[in-house]
Design a protein that fits this description.
The protein is built from two helices and ten strands, in the order ββββββββββαα.
């Protein structure tokens, strides 16, 4: 169990070799958390306490901020939603399941992700001695140094100014990517 600094988003797990998945825990401004899951050019933002999820497909995005196709039928990412649960998985053996009743999410990796992923959840190689590896490949025994090293933002409460797309529908998409507190592009 880690005590994370407030208002900081952290990288939980990422495939650093094949880039097949990224999972980020985002701190929202209202003391709630969201989970950012990226697989196969698809991003799923899950808000366990709000019991909602949003899905975006990057493969249909154009430079002019055209709205993204939210269907997954032409994609290799599978998403299942039940009343109190959402499951997102891909053909590469990555699965993220959130149970909204318990505000609990799990990340499961297949064997071929053995030793090629890293983040706050460790290295997934069954070696207890290297679980606290830092992004620079050094090791630490300090919890604060470990959790801070995997932060993906500067933990600032101040909003950055961004250039918005000129059309209303396009403005909405740009806000999702650049202004929402859960966006890693903020």
């Amino acid at each position: 169990i880690y005590d994370l600094p407030s208002k900081c988003s952290v990288l939980l797990a990422k495939d650093f070799v094949h880039n097949t998945f990224t999972v980020i825990l985002n701190e929202e401004t209202s003391n709630s958390r969201s989970l950012y899951v990226e697989m196969n050019q698809t991003v799923i933002s899950i808000y366990p306490r709000l019991k909602i999820s949003k899905m975006y497909n990057f493969s249909f995005m154009e430079e002019n901020c055209q709205l993204l196709d939210q269907s997954l039928e032409r994609n290799t990412t599978n998403s299942r939603r039940a009343a109190n649960k959402i499951e997102v998985s891909n053909q590469k053996g990555v699965s993220v399941v959130c149970d909204f009743r318990y505000d609990l999410c799990t990340v499961t990796l297949a064997g071929w992700h053995h030793g090629i992923s890293a983040g706050l959840l460790g290295t997934n190689d069954n070696e207890a001695g290297n679980e606290w590896i830092l992004p620079n490949h050094s090791f630490t025994e300090n919890v604060q140094e470990f959790t801070q090293s995997w932060q993906v933002n500067k933990c600032s409460l101040r909003q950055k100014k961004v250039k918005l797309c000129p059309v209303t529908a396009k403005e909405k998409l740009c806000k999702v990517f650049f202004e929402d507190s859960h966006s890693p592009l903020k």
